[in-house]
Amino acid sequence: MRHHISPAFALSCLMLLALGDRSHDCLAGEWIGWRVSGPFVCRAEFPLTQMDGLLRELAEIQTDLVERLRVPPARGPIEIYLFRDQRSYQRYLKCYLPHVPYRRALYVKSDGPGRVFAYRSRYLETDLRHECTHALLHEVLPVVPLWLDEGLAEYFEVSARQRAFDNPHLGSLRWSLTLGAIPQLESLEKKGDLAEMNRADYRHAWAWVHFMLHGPSEAREELIGFLADIRASTPPGLLSQRLARRLPRTNRSLALHFKTWRR
Fold first, then answer.
1. Nearest-CA neighbor of 147 among 98, 97, 100, 186?
2. I need a labelling partner for 73 at 20 to 30 A (CA). Which of 132, 133, 210, 260 fits?
């Protein structure tokens, strides 16, 4: 499970980042690695020579969002800070984001650039894709419903070649569908805090995003229109209601989509 922070709380935290802390415990390691890829400016406590491919992938997520969902590209830079290990990462967060529940990776947004924090681990690629998706969305949209924010991040957190047919959520979702458990979008729309989201909710949010990206064209059109209304500060309503008007028996359509989805 990941975490991103509201602008109001993040502002006070990032003031600490700007001011810094002169104590030894709060000093970050030296930023040895530095790269720019698309809208991302990446600094790391380790060389980035092995990460050029991943950084290109992060920039390509923006291309996908622009082409498939018609959201504009990020207006300004998004900063990524990578730590050499968990200990260095935890020490930094303890100093500058002490009230934030611990997560392997964080996205923080204030009035300035969005910032992504993570440390080198076997989950780093997944974590970066996930948090950078949040960053790209929040850079250009005034608000994103929690379920959709997480659903899109879950969709894009795997490599591009896995997204359509090989997401780890797919097997579990199909099993639950055979038992008659269909993800309810109306239930997801009621959740307003990450603490309310459990593992099944992340899977179900991903399922609705997959359905809208790979299912009936009407579903993707509604998602595009929904995001356009948010961007224009037009009350978008509930996406579940918009889908129901275009696709009667929407839940059945989602179930059929996954039962017949094959490479």
1. 186
2. 210
